[in-house]
Amino acid sequence: MTHQTSIAPWLHTLWEGLEFNNFPNAILLHGQSGIGKFAFSVELAKALLCESADISDKSCNQCEACHWFDTGNHPDFISLVPETHRKFLPHAEYEGDESIKKGKVSRDDDGAPSEKREKKNISIEETRSAIENLSIGSHRGGNRVILIYPLEMLRSDSANTLLKSLEEPPANTIFILLADRLDRVLPTIRSRCRLLAAPRPSREQGLAWLKEELNSISGLQVNDGDIEAIYDEQGGAPFSVFNSLVARHNKNEKDELTIAIQASRYLLQSMSQGARINWLDTAEKTHKAQYGFLLASMQRWSSDLQLVAQGGSPRYYPKHLATLQGLSKMANVQKLHHFWKLLVQARRHENHPLASRVQIEALLSKYQQIFGA
């Protein structure tokens, strides 16, 4: 695959702006989750490790380095990602990104599905070991690439170890750092990287890509209305929607994204009840989903409610315009704005190991009060 086929169309301009002959020691690619940053970075790592002298801005797919990369065996490619993302890395068993389309499930050595034990954080031991070993020269004598995602999930001791390497970068070592939330990355790390903002696709562009990708999967049937509704609900993140629909198609009920989307839909149905919301029941039926995902859904709904209350049009839930209009007439605008602030504050601590059920109950209780006298 060349970068024209493996990289999302809305990221082509970003790729074309890269200076491969004068590449920085570290880039920090940031932007919304689920828009293709990870696939972009994997292809970038491959291009930086390609040993063809004829091609400077993409991988040749012919040299030994490219073949090693595709089978997950390149000695100079280091990836520090949580277990939940390892299936998206090049690996002989997965045949690259095609694994997602074929519905393969990563398994542990004992043959049991690994979702139960998949961790969302990057191992401290792995991070320390990888960064400490950077002082050793590269195996192939060319570039060495270290990819870290999500950067904001690094613990403070790991982040400080990384910072030392960025301050005195080892020879021929390139850091590709990814973050969904740039505001959560240490300023000292940000200042030592070339910042690259990954743009969101337009709705038309994102849906066109999504439908084309879904059409390539044998047996997957989903109507356009359902695709568009999920796309809007997830804030225009085509890769997230693609992965969730494929997981649903493969009846992978334990898939984290599938669980989160189902919980999010129930949450939104409850929030559409306004003052009649049963917040205890809603918290009970949604709290097992990823807390940050639920908070994002609440934010989108509240954002649309504020827009409609001000006479505007909903951005995320256009199909729920009538419901939003009805709620906006009963809402206390001041309380709605205060609720929005609570959500912003909650998102700053969404990865803290708090009891999410209690937090959701408290937030939904406050939401109900928006529609009180």
Short description:
With 373 residues, the protein is of the alpha/beta class. Helices cover 49% and strands 7% of the residues. It has 3 domains: 3-197, P-loop containing nucleotide triphosphate hydrolases (Rossmann fold, 3-Layer(aba) Sandwich), CATH 3.40.50; 201-254; 273-373, no CATH class.
Structure description:
By secondary structure, the chain is of the alpha/beta class. It has three domains: 3-197, Rossmann fold (3-Layer(aba) Sandwich); 201-254; 273-373, no CATH class. It is 49% helix and 7% strand. It is built from 18 helices and five strands. The chain has helices spanning 3-6, 12-16, 37-49, 64-70, 83-86, 98-102, 124-132, 156-167, 187-190, 203-215, 224-233, 238-249, 256-271, 279-286, 291-309, 321-330, 333-348, 356-369; strands at residues 26-30, 77-80, 144-148, 173-179, 194-197. Strands 2-3-4-1-5 form a five-stranded parallel sheet, sandwiched between helices. Helix 8 links the parallel strand 3 (144-148) and strand 4. Helix 13 (256-271) runs antiparallel to helix 14 (279-286), helix 14 (279-286) packs antiparallel against helix 18 (356-369) and helix 15 packs antiparallel against helix 17. The longest helix is centred in the last third of the chain and has 19 residues, at 291-309. The protein is globular and about 65 Å long. The model is unreliable at 1-5 and 93-118 (pLDDT under 50).
